[in-house]
Amino acid sequence: MPKIAKTSKCIVAGMLAALSVFSITACTSEGSSADTPSQAQTANTQPEKTYQVDTLRMAAYGGDRGGPNPFLQKSGGPADQKVRYIFDSLLNEGTKELDPWLAESYSVDGNVYTFKLHQDAMWHDGEKVTADDVAFTVNYYQKHTPTSQLIFSGDYNNLTAKVLDEYTVQITANENDSTVLGFIGSMFILPQHIWESVEDPLTFTDEKAYVGCGMYKFNSYDPTTGAYSYIAFDDYYGPKVAAREIDFVPVSDELLAFENGEIDLAGISADLAEEYGKKDGVGIISKDDDMIYQIYLNHEKVPEFADFEVRKAIYQAIDRESIVQNIWRGYGTVTGAGLISPTNTRFYTDEVEQYDYDVEAARKVLEGKNISFTLTCPESYTGMAEIVKKTLTEIADRH
Phi and psi at residue 20, in whole multiples of 5°? Predict the structure, then answer.
């Protein structure tokens, strides 16, 4: 979904799958991105000297997402993101691989994972972050499963942690699996000096429950409205954040709230991108949000779909570029047969066999076949469905 904003310097990223509009009154770094909270670039007031932005106000999607810690958060990406402002993990998702984060470096030897921590990392209450905290977190999570940490459920609920020195910890998994590093690396690290006395994390709602070592400190949370507020942590070991404060503001209509100056960033549909792009003081950010649109074929209702050549022909018959241009106004990318977008450099591979748009090849396979089926979709997908229907109907009409 595109997003818009008001800005003194229009910052436009490459055209991908999603757009944002943003408002900004001052910016000292042209061309910077907003992929992480440390690179936030929107504002509505004059920034303090040490920040590009004083306050960044964003819409609070979906209302209450639970308290921003690993136990009180609700399941789902938006809730996880709100926790990640406060609590850091050992690793962070990079463009092609997992990058060191709270861990300054790491190594892998089979099912043994060794992490060297940043020695200047601090908890928000001023205590130092050490390997003891990581080892404690592993043990605590195995007794009290956090909301979104899958590593501590099922077959993976068997990790051992060994402290090698004050800033080095070794974690051993019971299995050698390609996904384990990601699970271990993404777990939110807890401060031992706070959580070691907490017997039931689900009832621990004291403000200490929101002490982490992330780039932002907990400021406030209102479960009745879903409002969240964060303040930059000046002693953060990592990159300098751009916004002094981040507020998630409850709104009923995101675009209207943006127009009224209540928030600084809003999502827009692709058909509004050109309109907002012409407005003074409005910048557009487009980013790849990895939203993939798929067609599912029901083999039970239509036995012909069990034939690979038929499925391939249907795939080749759909003009996906037409969907990108006509439905998304060019703000999108045609994915490959492996579903992952070419813009997703971490997971995309061109080794998956591709089937380009080829009407003639599709017609040769489908010629003489009498295949009847119903295409169903949510109301918001109707435009895409119409293009698919039109393409397949044209092939059928020429038989």
Answer: -135, 145
